[in-house]
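Workshop exercise sheet. Pairs work together: one partner reads the sequence aloud, the other fills in the structure field after running the prediction. Swap roles for the next sheet.
Pair: D.N. / O.F.
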Amino acid sequence: MVPLRRLQTGIFDVSSRHQTVGRTRKRLEQMSHAESCDFALKDTDVEREVRMRRGERHIGRAGTWRWVLVLLTGLTMGLLSFALNLAASSLTLLRFRLATTLIQETGTLAAPFCVFVGLAALYGAAASAVVVFFAPQAAGSGLAEMRAYFNGVHVSGLLSMKTFFVKLVSAVFVLAAGLVAEGESPFVHVGAIVGGGLSSLGSRSLTRATKGRWKAKLPRWAGGWFRSEVEHRDMTAVGAASGLAVAFVAPLAGVLLIAEQSAANLGEAVYWRVLLATSAAVLALNVLVAAYTAGASFWDARLLYTFMPDNAPALAAYRVRLWELPAFAGVGALLGAVSAAFVAVNANLIYSARQRWISPTSRFRRMSEVVFLAALTAAVWLSLCYASPCAPTPPPRRQAALAPAPIPSSLYMFGEYSLYPQLWCPPGYYSQYGQLFFAPSRLTLRRTVGVDAVSAEDRASDTLFNLRALSLYAMATTVMLTLTYGAGAALGVVTPTLQVGAVAGLLMCHLVRAAAAAAGYAGAPASLPVYGVVGAGATLSGCLRYKATAVLITVEATGAWSLIVPVVISVFAAELVADRLSSGLFDAYLHLACTPFLADPGAAPGVAYACDRLSVADVMATGVHALPPVIAVAEVVHALSGTTFSTFPVTEEVDLAARAGAEFHVLGIIERQTLLKMLLQRIGLVPGPGGQAAILGALSAGDLAAWVDLRPFMFRSPLLVQGGASLTRALVLFRGLGLRHLLVAPQDPRSVGIITRKDLTLENAQLVLAQQ
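Structure field:
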């Protein structure tokens, strides 16, 4: 944006202003292709008649079935998470075991390098091919798109069955390939598809695939009650929260994700359903993991291990002192600045280069990019292991002191990986770089937030990880994440940001220890895992601008519940610094995609500044395309095919409505989808499913000469806002109610009465019903 003071005078300033205006108009033209969701109550005559005929038994049965679907969503996500983790872990373990075997047999770099890098490239090709050839909407984590959906923007194909299967397959191979941009975050998108699909108990994708010969949906009497956009949004929220819960074993973080990302207040009932679903999902995952790992002793297996009392010795490593609180704020501020720099580079330089050299329509280039990134990551990681210095493997007592077991992390990792890999080192020695680079990313995260020298004789000695290894890992992961995120596969960003933050936190802890020693501090040294957890939360918040969600993801995934206050301090500092330097990663990508995202004016000073200075009349459209209450089918077809409007006012003053700035009497509004359903179902002219072209093309000359009454299907009570109201008021209404449109009324509209809060109570409604 060009500052206002630069737009006042001067040839250069005027030129800059014209360029800014031109870019803004171009963005608005691109935004016009996006569709909006409408989460407002459908208050038509037909809908009211249906609701009035429902009895108490029907309403109670629908409520019970809603809870069943919520529970089923959570259990389904637990099962899917277990299957995905097991498949990805098996493929990952195969790659590491083959490389280890070849290292032991040959002692050279060539053979294990070819196998390790070759399998990574093969996995990367599979992860990308299913996306670029079958479902481009499955690329990325889906978190940005879900953020837009809950804000009221409809993304075509986002919640389709095809996207669901492609997302699952791609996420498995992304994890197996070892790409830095992990495959856990896409589970939020997968969960949203599961929740949205179960809510309607149907699939449009399957119906279209069979060309209408089989309608993939259950009838209403069998439970298909929840097909409104509001019910679909609520169940999508339930599924998305369950996806986050099983991805990071963080049920409370799933609830807060929906609370933070949804523009509307979904209500207490929805949040309670979300909590039930996330808890059921995590419990199902725990049970399945216990069944897989415990074998015959399944019934004695211990669930929810984080909260067991015998974890107290491990949790003792999470020690915090009062003088460290400013240090936590400093760590958060520094990592917030680093995170903002990452967002700026990835969303500007890397995105621009990708758009220039790798067109979104070039499938083979997009797949080749993912293959190259997977091979490059594997090659760099294994080369660093080959060049790693060796150190004597510590005796068992020393290992127990350095890494007390078990640190109660909730992150599951199938397969055994040595904490002291020998690799190319002589017997009795281990690879210092291999501790970080020759292990899956999720396991590395567990190690970096759960190690410390806790015994008295070990306090003055070196800790588990070599400082040079930590520095290299932080730099290499940051560089590869910057290059990888945004490529054509199901790539996420949560786990790598937690990794980078945890490693950076360990490095900061060493600095704090050195500063404390220089100042003459004689107490116990600063705890490494504390700073690892604090750094992880700060980096996650700085990249994604999650607040409470970042805090809970960090403490739930690591099991560091006692560190919630230090994590809050670091997250607040990171957010404060990062907001002054750049936007969040998902906000940046929504901006690049020209998504009409409506920001909260209370949290976005620029939005509040502009909206407070404009009124609704300044931005409204006049001269609207309206329809009469009784209209010929031919005129309906002309309106649908000749315009792209999603909503049409219904009025008897059609000619007056078409005049710019003229006032006209509104009977109601009717949506494009309602008109198409009337032509498709009410008249019954098209036997199978189809879009607008199929419906309109099947109409005969006799059909076009018929007339249709719009009044039973129009919204008789559309929401209005006065033209003199501030733009902030309209923005708050749009965000809070999930609207698609608002009618603008004159400055001095007529009124027939007024209602208060008391008039909306149950007691008053019962009294009025008794008097009728």
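Discussion prompt: The CA atoms of residues 647 and 741 lie 8 Å apart. What would you look at next?
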